[in-house]
Amino acid sequence: MRYLKSLATLMLAGSLSVSADTITEECENEWPGNYQMQEYCAKKAAGGARAIHAFLARHDMTMDNWVKQSVRGKVPALILKKCNEEWHPDLKMIAYCLEKEEVAAIRLGKIGGAPEDSVEFEPGINGEIAALGVSSDYLKRHNYGHVDEAKEAADRGDPAGIIWVECQSGDHRKQAKCLLKREAAELE
After folding, report:
1. Closest alpha carbon to 142 in 156, 130, 129, 127
2. Helix 159-166 vs helix 147-155: crossing angle, to nearest 10
3. Phi/psi class of residue 19: alpha, beta or left (left: φ > 0; alpha: ψ in -120 to 50)?
4. How many domains does the chain have?
5. Do residues 39 and 77 lie in contact, with contact meaning Cβ atoms separated by under 8 Å?
6. Which residues lie closer than 8 Å to 168 by C-beta, 6 or more apart?
7. Of 30, 51, 98, 159, which alpha carbon lies 20 to 30 A from 20's?
8. Residues 107 and 132 in one domain
């Protein structure tokens, strides 16, 4: 997708701001005459850009210094480098990758913070998908092929199954944050 490539190039080349006009123009070029897709394209690109900038801010980085920090081995900068190499030019997927890698690095003690505090699921369907991904990853990590297996494990007294069952109230975002928090507490 041309629009994402040029936006990612702007962002990762050092520009701290991608203007709404730039996003709009790129999406119009990508989807001429299709206003619904232009709107969708612009929302995706803008959401990804905001999430990347939030990641940078959380780790006291800028678009100008993250490359130097990655050369020095700073974990957040290495995460950004990995996600950019893996998903460039898709800003939304770079942002999703950053979220997943950041949570894992926090769990492993590679960077500070509490996973439930670092993850802010965006509104709408993309946030729902990300939250469902956390739940799905939890089930996989604990070798539960299905939700029912987690419930059966809880009935047998398995700690991971108990956490799963206890975190199943509220919406998907609340459930995902609960899983991250409880799992982090178990690791301590």
Report:
1. 156
2. 120
3. beta
4. 2
5. no
6. 175
7. 98
8. no
